[in-house]
Amino acid sequence: MARKSRNKAAAVDAGIAAKSNVVPIASALMPAHEAAGAGRRLRGWSPSGVGPNRANTGAATLRNRARDAGRNDWAGRAIPQRWAANLVGTGIIARPKTTDATLKETLRDLWDDWSEVCDADGVLDLYGLQNMVAKNWIEAGEVFIRLRPRRPEDGLPVPLQIQVLEADMVPATDSRAPNGNEIKQGIEFNGFGQRVAYWMYRNHPGDGNGDTGTLVRVPAEAVLHIYEPTRAGQLRGVSDLAPILARLRGVGDFDDAVLERQKLANLFAGFLERPASGQDAALDPLTGQPITADHDGTPMAALEPGTMQELLPGESVKFSEPPDAGAGYRDFTRQQYAGVAAGTGLPYELLTGDLAGVSDRALRVILNEFRRHCQQRQWHILIPQFCRKVRAAWADAAVIAGIINGAEGREARRVTWVPQGWAYIHPTQDVQAQQIAVESGFTSRTRVITERGDDPEEIDQERAADDEREDTLGIGHQEMDSEPPEDDPVATAVLENQRSLGNAIAQLAAREQPAPQLTVQLPGPGKPTMKVGKRMPDGSVEIREVEIEGAGDAA
């Protein structure tokens, strides 16, 4: 009987334990992340789960609106300009790596000559095209470059030119090519998933001139596609202005509303109040002349500078008090444009030029962070997608034309790309820091010059030429003579006094513990004094003022 009771009790305990470990079904299905919940706060948030290419369905609309903002909104125009100015500046330059001085000079001259005539439209040079590519990429999200081989009789240094094409030239359509390859977003892929061609219009579809409906298959090796993918598998680019276009539009409308309100309010200078009378309302009681009316029939009284107007009994003037823009207008617009700047990766101060309340230290931090972002885009997008591929196509065209041989063509591909250097924030401090880094062995003079966007070899050649020219003309720098002229007793006495003072300070500092940072005071005639610290037995430091013996008269 006792055994049955124990078994029954054990069964009850096991049942209770099992019930306590059961997790309710509703709790098990609840998301662990609060942002994945479906409570009141997030019930209306139903984001799309489309893939990286279906998410770009509205890219054409975004592109058109971004261009419209660039035409009609100051911030929409400034954003691509600021980015292009910092990404490209005056140009990203190629420097050959070959150690053969003759070949290096040949490649450099050939590249410079070709850079001036490389534009298929005949408008810009290579560095102007770099700027156009950067602006179109930021504004429209992507840009295409078509490599145009030319005939030898065209007279180009290298028979090749490049043509910049807007994203509209490649419609983002999905279909099948005649050869059976799949076309995604206007790009043809082979069975291995490699890009083999781009389907382009013959003319820009927005111009309405010529054939704007026929698509032409252009081999992928003749096309460069510059864009910044943000998701794996993304085939086309999206405007950098996409996250802020709605906000930019709203801020612009708000500014317009405030401006119109101010304009309307200031149309009225004042109001003339008079009691009702039996006089003819069409005549001015002040002048007896017909009342001047506005185009809508509103009676008007003219005001002129210096007028002293006499009013009739019972008349008064009430001046208009138009409302101002509002006490919070500046803070509100500043906050909105700060969001616009952050959404495009630009510092607010750089976008707007508003440096109010920004110290030089804070500005250095802001610019350093932005420059790091610029370097990312230079070395991850512009240089690999545009600069290197253009250089490779140029080298191949030069080899095919017989201008350089195969070995020289391989050397022509090996270059160092040098963007324009950043301007100094504090020229004196920045140059001193670089000088100390070079002298300490933390970097090299060549690297410092390269980071400035200059060529170390050219700098050395220019310095050597300057020295040679100065020596020839006899205008070289004269070394400073530390000794005073013998016929100047005053200068000699001052120098001796300085030496004596320095020796006395050194001797006194050697006797004091710990060795202090000495502050010398020269109150005038008499012996100079200085404040020194002395370590006491209890560990404290005693500060006292002492006279410097042996320093002579400081006068």
Describe this structure in words.
- It is a single chain.
- This protein has 555 residues and is α+β, with helices and mostly antiparallel strands.
- Among the domains are: 55-240, no CATH class; 244-274 and 316-343, no CATH class; 424-468, no CATH class; 508-555.
- It is built from 15 helices and 17 strands.
- It has helices spanning 2-20, 25-29, 59-72, 74-87, 101-116, 126-140, 245-265, 329-343, 348-352, 360-400, 406-413, 427-439, 445-451, 456-473, 489-511; strands spanning 93-96, 142-149, 160-166, 175-176, 182-184, 187-189, 195-201, 215-219, 223-227, 270-273, 292-293, 299-300, 316-319, 415-418, 519-521, 529-535, 541-547.
- Strands 4-5-6-7-8 form a 5-stranded antiparallel sheet, with no helix packed on it. A 3-stranded antiparallel sheet has the order 3-2-9.
- A hairpin with a 7-residue loop joins strand 15 (519-521) and strand 16 (529-535).
- Helix 4 (74-87) crosses helix 6 (126-140).
- Residues 513-518 and 551-555 have low confidence and may be disordered.
